[in-house]
Amino acid sequence: MPNGIQTDVDGLRKWMALPGAPTSVQWQVREKGVRTAGIGPTDFELIAVLEYNATDMEQLQSQMVRQTSPADLYVANDFIQPWVPAEIESAFTTDSLYPDLLKLATARYEPDVFTSGSLQNGYAVVVGSYVLVYLHTM
Q1: How are strands ordered across the β-sheet holding 130-136?
Q2: What's the pLDDT tens digit per position in 57-96?
Q3: Nearest to residue 28, comparing CAs of 40, 17, 16?
Q4: pLDDT grade, residue 110 (50/70/90)?
Q5: CA gap 79, 124 in Å, rounded
């Protein structure tokens, strides 16, 4: 599993489907949960920020399907890493109902165009020229 923040497009293609030709990528793979002494697979998550030019973004968005779950999406306060662009960070807000969490304040999309291998669950968020992709194993 790669350590730290990666910017390698070819390396990212080993973890997820990557439609089109993003102009830049930043991504990180992290273990989920607490590792125990038990034998078995460890779940992990991939967080990627993809930047596209306007033409490629329009084509990508035409392939994406909005998630229909009416439930609000909350994430841990440390979900937004320092390397995530301010445009993406602005899509998450604080909520007085759950002050220890961040709430997604924009539409989220099914991750289908990005899923690959065991990374079949998650969502995507589009803000301007950026796509935040969150995928995880279960």
Answers
A1: 24-31, 44-51, 130-136, 121-127
A2: 999 999 999 998 889 999 999 999 999 999 999 999 999 9
A3: 16
A4: very high
A5: 14
Q: 9 has which bridge partners?
A: none
Amino acid at 49: V
Residue 100, H or E segment: none
* All residues at 6 or more sequence positions from 101 whose CB lies less than 8 Å from its CB, including other chains: 74, 75, 76, 77, 95
Residue for token digits 């125990």?
A: 36
Nearest to 128 by CA among 54, 68, 30: 54
**H-helix or E-strand spanning residue 58:** helix 54-63
Cα distances (Å, whole numbers) of residue 55 to 32, 59, 79, 129: 35, 6, 29, 10
Residue 13 host element (H or E): helix 9-13
CA angle 62, 53, 107 (to 5 degrees): 45
Name the helix (H) or strand (E) containing 9: helix 9-13
This prediction has a pTM of 0.91
| SS3 (DSSP) at 90 | coil
